[in-house]
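[recover] target loaded
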């Protein structure tokens, strides 16, 4: 299994390798369309020229002290708001609507979200990274 790689340039080299691919990935696989209301008629639907819908990478159920998750959290927190290039490797075939056909996909890291599981050892219910394609 080849996991997601992150780079600060479009051709590599890799700055960060995810130890494990996300367990849940929302690739926004529906057609990107916008609805426009018409005064005396049905709405008009137009396909977007650029699909900038956010994508979510989610890793559920890891202990907060896990070296894997602390590495992910530290790295993605340090680049929040910045643009990076992602090579999705094994899950690349899920990116049919990504607005680029190159191996390295340009995206802005919008935010990291942490949801904690109640009770017992301190565990993440979900650790998510939200990214948005860039032109």
């Amino acid at each position: 299994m080849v996991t997601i790689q992150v780079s600060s340039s479009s051709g590599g080299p890799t700055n960060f390798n995810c130890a494990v691919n996300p367990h849940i990935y929302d690739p926004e696989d529906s057609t990107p369309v916008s609805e426009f209301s018409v005064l005396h008629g049905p709405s008009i639907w137009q396909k977007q020229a650029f699909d900038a819908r956010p994508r979510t990478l989610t890793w559920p159920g890891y202990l907060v002290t896990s070296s894997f998750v602390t590495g992910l959290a530290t790295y993605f927190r340090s680049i929040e708001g910045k643009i990076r290039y992602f090579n999705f490797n094994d899950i690349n075939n899920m990116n049919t609507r990504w607005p680029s056909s190159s191996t390295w996909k340009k995206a802005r890291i919008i935010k990291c979200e942490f949801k904690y599981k109640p009770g017992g050892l301190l565990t993440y219910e979900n650790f998510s990274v939200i990214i948005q394609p860039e032109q």
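[recover] notes: The helical segments are 67-78.
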